[in-house]
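Reviewer 2 asked us to include a model.

Predict the structure of this chain.
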Amino acid sequence: QVELVEYGGGLVQAGGSLNLDCIASGRILTIGAMGWYRQAPGKERELVADITSDGRTNYADSVKGRFTISRAHPLNTVSLQMSSLKPEDTAVYLCYAISSRTYWGQGTQVTVSS
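Predicted model (structure tokens):
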């Protein structure tokens, strides 16, 4: 069993920055890749960024150059640094971790005002 808790998020003006953190607990040694999805009202959930256990990263085209994902061992914290935020980045951001199955955090709201 793996538990994920997200921190950060909130309200920011367009052009601003926010940091999200996700801390895993439980069977953290079984975790492989971790990352972030987001879901905006009326839209499908989309992958924002992910990072493997050996540090390889992958980003959605819409966030490349603006978001940075990182991971801290051995606490298995995954962080998302978001800059140059746009109103279209407004969504609930969900952390996930892949172990024996995919585990999800509860989500944290990010709202970017224009």
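Residues 5 and 75 are 12 Å apart (CA to CA). DSSP finds no helices and eleven strands in the chain. We have added this to the supplementary material.
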